[in-house]
């Protein structure tokens, strides 16, 4: 491509373009990741500092029932939030894609999503509190008041609420590219609606479904803010444990081990996703 | 079937807007607690504007967002150009590194940056946690997003356009300035807008990298909410909702006109 350029000129161009950003990634992404890994093998000193001895003791601690339970809860939030997002988001993507005013509908989908994340979580706290709207409505039917907050239910609800657009958008992209002639062909060949959908439509939306699942599952697994505000100590997820170790407890070594574990789990999920979707899959995520 | 789909869509949109509408309505409510509307008032807005700290937090948020977006857009655009145009050792590794800030949970990114800054302070004596460390943290996740967005735009471009410029005698930087950059511009603008949004929205990375005096609006909302439901936060939230609606509508109007 750069036949005219000498090797020196080419090296200079690479240095100017890739140099600053590349260096940034090495210092602020690679180095911190290695530091977390390093810290996870250290020990908490008497003043919360990191010291020796080295070892796997922080990882051994992960198998304590308290921590296993937090992991199980995170996994449950991740899986349930993904499933509920699919139930809500999949039909919605079809509705938007087939609507004459789809630009407007997409705009309306994105609007709450661009409102600050904390405000969206906070809004559920307001709705679910004892004197909140949900209990007021239940009261009108002679029910309640129920203790809706803090609870696992509240955490799950707000998680779905915050990440739902991440599910709808990739599915919408798949539906837009859909070849509807295949559906007609299925009908012509005598398939009933359900069968026609399962064989002619659903497989065409797999890329969107998978991308949407990853985009909901990963942030849902890793969040600590939602559980912090809406679980108020009763729902403890992996993210909350990590935050506690770096905040109150000041056991950075154990916090680092938790981080490595969470990161490893996320990367493993992504690896499985990439195996399923091929190289292109990862690029679809951004 | 069609009707069922319409009903479903209506309910999902109701689910999306109900919390926001409730916040907006309550910000004008006289009652401090609960959802019973006891009368219209602007008291909470008055209280908000009379709090000098809120202006400071607002300015902090804007400073972080604009400085980090500027730096990240510059670094990310150059990096994307380099990744698309040249071959060099370590290219594959760098491409993988780009995905780390995108896929790794915020909390892990926050604590890893905290460890980096703690070590840097131990060894080099700086930086102490402040607005600067928040900006460094924001640039880090923004660079990854900007690079990926600009890169996908550059990959769509026809390399023949740059070759033509060179055949006509343009030097390397002339080709870049007069051909590559104008063609990549929509990608750069989209990347910058995404970076700005991410910065304004970020709570987690800020939470771990902010020192004293570096409170941003999301940090302020978090600490107020921890103390319980507050009408002042309703008022602040309503203002932020209004502002994001305005900017989104502006973007929507601009893209529509172009098409």
From TrEMBL, chain A:
Xref: InterPro entries: MetI-like (IPR000515), MetI-like_sf (IPR035906)
Domain ABC transmembrane type-1: 71-273
Main location: membrane
Transmembrane segments: 21-42, 75-97, 104-127, 147-173, 209-232, 252-273
Topology in the lipid bilayer: Multi-pass membrane protein
Subcellular location: Cell membrane
GO CC annotation terms, alphabetical: plasma membrane
SUPFAM superfamilies xref list: MetI-like
Name under which the protein is recorded: ABC transporter permease
From TrEMBL, chain B:
An individual GO BP term: transmembrane transport
Transmembrane segments: 6-28, 57-84, 96-119, 131-156, 176-196, 203-221, 233-254
InterPro entries reported in the protein's UniProt record: Bact_Polyamine_Transport (IPR051789), MetI-like (IPR000515), MetI-like_sf (IPR035906)
Pfam family, one: BPD_transp_1
PROSITE patterns referenced in this protein's UniProt entry, alphabetically: ABC_TM1
ABC transmembrane type-1 domain residues: 58-251
This protein's UniProt keywords: Cell membrane, Membrane, Transmembrane, Transmembrane helix, Transport
Cell location: Cell membrane
SUPFAM superfamilies (alphabetical): MetI-like
Gene Ontology cellular component terms for the protein in this record: plasma membrane
Membrane topology: Multi-pass membrane protein
Main location class: membrane
Similarity comment: family membership: Belongs to the binding-protein-dependent transport system permease family. CysTW subfamily.
Protein name in UniProt: ABC transporter permease
Organism listed in the record: Thermus tengchongensis
């Amino acid at each position: 491509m750069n036949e005219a350029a000498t090797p020196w000129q080419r090296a200079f161009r690479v240095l100017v373009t890739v140099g600053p950003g590349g260096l940034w990634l090495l210092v602020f992404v690679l180095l911190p990741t290695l530091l977390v890994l390093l810290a996870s093998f250290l020990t908490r000193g008497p003043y919360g500092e990191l010291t020796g001895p080295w070892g796997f003791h922080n990882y051994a601690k992960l198998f304590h029932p308290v921590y296993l339970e937090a992991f199980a809860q995170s996994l449950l939030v991740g899986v349930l939030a993904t499933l509920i997002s699919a139930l809500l988001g999949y039909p919605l993507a079809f509705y938007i894609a087939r609507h004459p005013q789809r630009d407007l509908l997409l705009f309306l989908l994105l609007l709450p999503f661009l409102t600050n994340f904390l405000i969206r979580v906070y809004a559920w706290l307001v709705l679910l509190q004892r004197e909140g709207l949900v209990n007021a409505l239940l009261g009108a039917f002679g029910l309640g008041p129920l203790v809706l907050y803090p609870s696992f239910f509240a955490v799950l609800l707000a998680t779905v609420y915050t990440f739902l657009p991440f599910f709808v958008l990739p599915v919408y992209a798949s539906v837009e590219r859909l070849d509807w002639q295949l559906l007609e062909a299925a009908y012509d060949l005598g398939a009933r609606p359900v069968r026609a959908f399962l064989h002619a439509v659903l497989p065409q939306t797999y890329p969107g479904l998978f991308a949407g699942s990853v985009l909901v599952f990963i942030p849902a697994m890793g969040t600590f803010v939602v559980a912090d505000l809406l679980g108020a100590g009763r729902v403890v997820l992996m993210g909350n444990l990590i935050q506690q170790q770096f905040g109150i407890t000041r056991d950075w070594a154990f916090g680092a081990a938790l981080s490595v574990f969470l990161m490893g789990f996320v990367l493993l999920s992504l690896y499985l996703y990439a195996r399923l979707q091929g190289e292109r899959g990862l690029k679809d995520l951004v | 079937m069609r009707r069922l789909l319409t009903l479903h869509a209506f309910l999902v949109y109701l689910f999306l807007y109900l919390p926001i509408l409730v916040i907006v309505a309550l910000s004008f409510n006289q009652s401090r607690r609960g959802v019973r509307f006891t009368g219209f008032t602007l008291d909470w807005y008055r209280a908000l504007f009379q709090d000098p700290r809120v202006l400071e937090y607002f300015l902090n948020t804007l400073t972080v967002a604009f400085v980090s977006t500027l730096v990240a857009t510059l670094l990310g655009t150059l990096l994307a150009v380099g990744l698309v145009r040249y071959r060099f050792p370590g290219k594959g590794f760098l491409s993988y590194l780009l995905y780390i800030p995108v896929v790794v949970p915020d909390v892990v990114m926050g604590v890893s940056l905290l460890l980096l800054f703690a070590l840097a302070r131990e060894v080099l004596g700086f930086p102490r946690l402040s607005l600067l460390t928040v900006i460094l943290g924001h640039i880090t996740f923004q660079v990854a997003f900007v690079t990926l967005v600009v890169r996908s735009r550059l990959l769509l471009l026809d390399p023949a356009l740059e070759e033509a410029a060179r055949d006509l005698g343009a030097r390397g930087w002339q080709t870049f300035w007069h051909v590559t950059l104008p063609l990549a511009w929509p990608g750069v603008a989209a990347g910058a807008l995404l970076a700005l949004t991410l910065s304004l929205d970020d709570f987690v990375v800020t939470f771990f990298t902010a020192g004293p005096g570096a409170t941003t609006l999301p940090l302020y909302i978090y600490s107020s909410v921890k103390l319980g439901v507050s009408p002042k936060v309703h008022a602040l939230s309503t203002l932020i909702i209004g502002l994001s609606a305005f900017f989104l509508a502006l973007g929507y109007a601009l893209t529509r006109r172009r098409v």
